[in-house]
Amino acid sequence: MKIVLLTALGVGLSTVIGSLIGFAFKKISHKFSDIVLSFAAGVMLAAAVLGLILPSLEYGGKFKLLITVGGIFAGALSLNLIDRFVPHLHRLMGVDSEQHQNADLNKVLLFVTAIAIHNLPEGIAAGVGFGSDDTSKALLIAGGIALQNIPEGMVIIGPLLSAGVSPRRTFVCALITGIVEVLGTLLGYFAVSIASVILPFALAFAGGTMLYVISDEMIPETHAHNNERGATYALLVGFCVMLVSDVLLG
User: Are 218 and 231 in contact (CB under 8 A)?
Assistant: First the structure.
C-alpha cells in the first residue's frame, strides 16, 4: 500500500512540478510557447495512442473495436459539449469576461478540462496494476504518465495567466489536475474488479479527449504565429520521446 501511495503522489506531483516550471517561464515569446506546446502535443499524441488507445484494445475483449472506437468518439463529443458550456466557468475562474475575449479563455479552459478528464483513467490504469499485484507494469505506466504530466503542467500556466486568471487560481487549476490522477490511482487500486470492466472504455474515452484537443486546439494554436516548421518538429520530438520511453521501459 505504501508504494501505491508514493506512486500516486509522485504522478500527481509531476503536474505540479511542470506548473512551477511554467511559472518560471511565464513570460516567453510566441515562438518558444509554440515549441513547448507542440512538444506537449507530441507527448499527448503518443500517450493517447500508446498508453490509452492500444491498451483499450488489449483489454477490450470480444468487443474491443466497438468499445475503443465508441470510447474515442464519446471522449471527443464530450469535449465538444463541454466547449459549449465553458463560458459559464468564467466567474469560477475569477476572470472578467468583459476584459478578455471569451474565445481565448474557452480554449484554455477546454485544454485544462481535457487534461483533468484524461488524468482519471490514466490513474486508474496505474492503480489496477497495483491492485492486480502487477507492480512492474504499474510502475511503467506511472513513469510514462509522470513524464507526460510535466510538460502538461508547464503549458497550462502561460495560457491561463494570459487569459486573465490570477496566479493563485492558475496554480490551483494545475494542482487539481494532479489530484484527479492521485484519486484515479487509488480508485483503481481499491476497485480492481470494477475498474477492469470500465477500463477499456475509460482509456479510449481519455484518448478521444486528447486527440480532440490536439487537433482542435493545440495544433492550430501552434501554427498561428508563423512557427509551423519548428512546431511540427517539436511535435515529432515529443512523440518520439514518449515512443522511446515506452520501448525502453517496456
Answer: no
Structural domain tally of the chain? 1
Would you say residue 184 lies in a domain? Answer: yes
Q: Read off the pLDDT of residues 127-167 as tens digits, 9 standing for 90 and up.
A: 766 655 556 656 766 766 676 677 667 767 777 777 777 88
Q: Are 201 and 71 in contact (CB under 8 A)?
A: yes
In a domain? residue 32: no
Write out pLDDT tens, residues 229-241. Answer: 999 999 999 899 8
* SS3 of residue 226 by DSSP: coil
Grid coordinates given for 72: 474515442
CA distance 153 to 21: 8
Residue type, 108: V
For residue 60, give the 3-state DSSP assignment.
coil
Q: Shortest CA distance to 112 belongs to which of 135, 97, 93? A: 93
CA distance 98 to 146: 37
Residue 247, judged by CB atoms within 10 A of its CB (0-12, 13-18, 19+), counts as: exposed
8-state DSSP, 191:
T
Q: Which three cell numbers stand for residue 244?
A: 522511446
Q: Is residue 131 part of a domain?
A: yes
Alpha helices, DSSP H, located in the chain: 2-24, 30-46, 54-59, 64-85, 90-93, 102-131, 135-162, 167-190, 192-213, 219-222, 228-249
